[in-house]
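Appendix B, example 12.
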Amino acid sequence: MKTVTLDVNGKVFCLDVPDGELLIETLRDRLGFLGTKYSCLEGDCGVCTVLADGKNVLSCLMLTVEAEGRKITTIEGLGQKDLHPIQQAFIDEGAVQCGFCTPGMILASKSLLDAHPSPTQDEVVHALDGNLCRCTGYVRIVNAVLSAARKMKKTP
Protein backbone atom coordinates (compact mmCIF):
# COMPACT_ATOMS: atom_id res chain seq x y z
CA MET A 1 0.00 0.00 0.00
CA LYS A 2 1.24 3.48 -0.83
CA THR A 3 -0.27 6.90 -0.20
CA VAL A 4 -0.56 8.81 -3.48
CA THR A 5 -1.64 12.37 -4.17
CA LEU A 6 -3.30 12.80 -7.56
CA ASP A 7 -4.37 15.95 -9.39
CA VAL A 8 -7.33 14.87 -11.51
CA ASN A 9 -9.27 17.47 -13.46
CA GLY A 10 -7.91 20.19 -11.19
CA LYS A 11 -8.94 18.48 -7.94
CA VAL A 12 -6.44 16.93 -5.57
CA PHE A 13 -7.09 13.47 -4.15
CA CYS A 14 -5.00 11.71 -1.51
CA LEU A 15 -5.49 7.94 -1.44
CA ASP A 16 -3.93 4.74 -0.27
CA VAL A 17 -3.48 2.45 -3.27
CA PRO A 18 -2.28 -1.13 -3.40
CA ASP A 19 1.02 -1.85 -5.12
CA GLY A 20 0.40 -2.49 -8.80
CA GLU A 21 -2.94 -0.66 -9.02
CA LEU A 22 -3.50 0.72 -12.49
CA LEU A 23 -4.51 4.32 -13.06
CA ILE A 24 -7.71 3.18 -14.78
CA GLU A 25 -8.70 1.29 -11.63
CA THR A 26 -8.10 4.33 -9.46
CA LEU A 27 -9.91 6.72 -11.80
CA ARG A 28 -12.99 4.55 -12.35
CA ASP A 29 -13.32 2.40 -9.26
CA ARG A 30 -12.06 4.74 -6.54
CA LEU A 31 -12.74 8.23 -7.91
CA GLY A 32 -15.79 7.58 -10.11
CA PHE A 33 -14.47 9.00 -13.40
CA LEU A 34 -16.48 6.60 -15.54
CA GLY A 35 -15.67 8.27 -18.87
CA THR A 36 -12.37 6.38 -18.76
CA LYS A 37 -13.39 3.00 -20.14
CA TYR A 38 -12.21 -0.54 -19.46
CA SER A 39 -11.70 -2.59 -22.60
CA CYS A 40 -8.62 -4.50 -23.74
CA LEU A 41 -6.38 -3.72 -20.71
CA GLU A 42 -3.42 -4.28 -23.04
CA GLY A 43 -2.96 -0.82 -24.53
CA ASP A 44 -4.36 -1.79 -27.92
CA CYS A 45 -7.65 0.09 -28.17
CA GLY A 46 -7.22 3.57 -26.64
CA VAL A 47 -10.57 3.76 -24.87
CA CYS A 48 -8.78 4.28 -21.55
CA THR A 49 -6.87 7.32 -22.85
CA VAL A 50 -6.40 10.18 -20.39
CA LEU A 51 -4.05 13.13 -20.47
CA ALA A 52 -1.04 13.29 -18.17
CA ASP A 53 0.50 16.76 -18.27
CA GLY A 54 -1.31 17.27 -21.58
CA LYS A 55 0.01 14.13 -23.28
CA ASN A 56 -2.23 11.18 -23.99
CA VAL A 57 -1.45 8.06 -21.99
CA LEU A 58 -3.19 4.73 -21.69
CA SER A 59 -4.47 4.46 -18.14
CA CYS A 60 -4.61 0.66 -18.43
CA LEU A 61 -0.82 0.59 -18.75
CA MET A 62 0.10 3.28 -16.20
CA LEU A 63 0.40 2.51 -12.53
CA THR A 64 -1.34 4.97 -10.24
CA VAL A 65 1.93 5.71 -8.46
CA GLU A 66 3.38 6.85 -11.83
CA ALA A 67 0.66 9.50 -12.06
CA GLU A 68 1.69 11.20 -8.83
CA GLY A 69 2.89 14.75 -9.48
CA ARG A 70 1.29 14.89 -12.92
CA LYS A 71 -1.88 16.72 -13.93
CA ILE A 72 -4.36 14.06 -15.06
CA THR A 73 -7.28 15.04 -17.27
CA THR A 74 -10.18 12.71 -17.97
CA ILE A 75 -13.08 13.42 -20.31
CA GLU A 76 -14.96 14.79 -17.30
CA GLY A 77 -12.30 17.49 -17.05
CA LEU A 78 -13.21 18.98 -20.43
CA GLY A 79 -16.24 21.14 -21.00
CA GLN A 80 -17.21 21.37 -17.36
CA LYS A 81 -19.55 24.32 -18.01
CA ASP A 82 -19.96 24.28 -21.78
CA LEU A 83 -18.85 21.64 -24.22
CA HIS A 84 -15.21 21.89 -25.24
CA PRO A 85 -14.88 22.80 -28.95
CA ILE A 86 -13.62 19.27 -29.69
CA GLN A 87 -16.66 17.75 -27.99
CA GLN A 88 -18.95 20.08 -29.93
CA ALA A 89 -17.20 19.26 -33.21
CA PHE A 90 -17.69 15.52 -32.59
CA ILE A 91 -21.43 16.18 -32.22
CA ASP A 92 -21.64 18.57 -35.17
CA GLU A 93 -19.77 16.20 -37.49
CA GLY A 94 -21.70 13.09 -36.39
CA ALA A 95 -18.48 11.52 -35.09
CA VAL A 96 -20.22 9.63 -32.30
CA GLN A 97 -22.29 6.54 -32.68
CA CYS A 98 -22.12 4.07 -29.82
CA GLY A 99 -19.83 6.50 -27.95
CA PHE A 100 -17.60 3.88 -26.35
CA CYS A 101 -14.40 5.15 -27.98
CA THR A 102 -15.38 8.83 -27.90
CA PRO A 103 -13.73 9.89 -24.60
CA GLY A 104 -10.39 8.43 -25.66
CA MET A 105 -10.69 9.90 -29.16
CA ILE A 106 -11.49 13.35 -27.80
CA LEU A 107 -8.60 13.33 -25.33
CA ALA A 108 -6.14 12.09 -27.97
CA SER A 109 -7.45 14.87 -30.23
CA LYS A 110 -6.95 17.46 -27.50
CA SER A 111 -3.36 16.36 -27.00
CA LEU A 112 -2.77 16.69 -30.75
CA LEU A 113 -4.43 20.10 -31.08
CA ASP A 114 -2.63 21.48 -28.04
CA ALA A 115 0.70 20.51 -29.61
CA HIS A 116 -0.25 21.18 -33.26
CA PRO A 117 -3.12 23.68 -33.60
CA SER A 118 -3.31 23.29 -37.41
CA PRO A 119 -2.80 19.60 -38.14
CA THR A 120 -3.08 18.05 -41.56
CA GLN A 121 -5.48 15.21 -42.18
CA ASP A 122 -2.54 12.78 -42.13
CA GLU A 123 -1.37 14.14 -38.77
CA VAL A 124 -4.84 13.63 -37.31
CA VAL A 125 -4.98 10.06 -38.63
CA HIS A 126 -1.54 9.36 -37.18
CA ALA A 127 -2.41 10.91 -33.80
CA LEU A 128 -5.52 8.75 -33.51
CA ASP A 129 -4.02 5.50 -34.78
CA GLY A 130 -3.93 3.99 -31.28
CA ASN A 131 -7.65 4.63 -30.72
CA LEU A 132 -9.99 2.05 -32.20
CA CYS A 133 -13.54 2.73 -33.35
CA ARG A 134 -15.82 0.02 -34.61
CA CYS A 135 -18.76 2.21 -35.62
CA THR A 136 -17.87 5.38 -37.50
CA GLY A 137 -15.16 4.42 -39.97
CA TYR A 138 -12.97 7.34 -38.78
CA VAL A 139 -13.89 9.78 -41.58
CA ARG A 140 -16.27 11.74 -39.38
CA ILE A 141 -13.85 11.60 -36.46
CA VAL A 142 -11.01 13.04 -38.54
CA ASN A 143 -13.37 15.69 -39.93
CA ALA A 144 -14.42 16.58 -36.37
CA VAL A 145 -10.82 17.07 -35.25
CA LEU A 146 -10.05 19.25 -38.27
CA SER A 147 -13.24 21.24 -37.68
CA ALA A 148 -12.35 21.72 -34.00
CA ALA A 149 -8.88 22.92 -35.00
CA ARG A 150 -10.39 25.59 -37.23
CA LYS A 151 -12.86 26.71 -34.54
CA MET A 152 -10.23 26.77 -31.81
CA LYS A 153 -7.97 29.00 -33.91
CA LYS A 154 -10.81 31.53 -34.19
CA THR A 155 -11.46 31.75 -30.44
CA PRO A 156 -9.25 34.02 -28.30
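The chain has five helices and five strands. The chain has two domains: 2-77, 85-154.
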